[in-house]
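Recall that a protein's primary structure is simply its ordered list of amino acids. Everything else, from secondary elements to tertiary packing, is in principle encoded there. The following example makes that idea concrete.
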Amino acid sequence: MTLNTVLTWRMPWSVAGQIERSWQLGRNEIWHSSGARGPVAIRVESGLVIVTREGDPEDHVLRAGEAVVFPPQGKVVAWALEPARATVRAA
């Protein structure tokens, strides 16, 4: 691992902070963050979503009940592969 490596991990949702916002997407719709001051946790409540972060070489495929945490740097983009509902929290 180099110093430039960015870590993302799947985490228990109960560890995340307060709810910041929820959103719903239709198939092939996209959501993006405007930038966060701290780490961000995204949990998919229903549907199937690909989530990626600027500078992160990996895309994260999340199904209902799954979550991922990103560090504060970089724009986060989510793309719904099917109708989806998700929640974004400060981590």
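The mean pLDDT is 80. DSSP finds no helices and eight strands in the chain.
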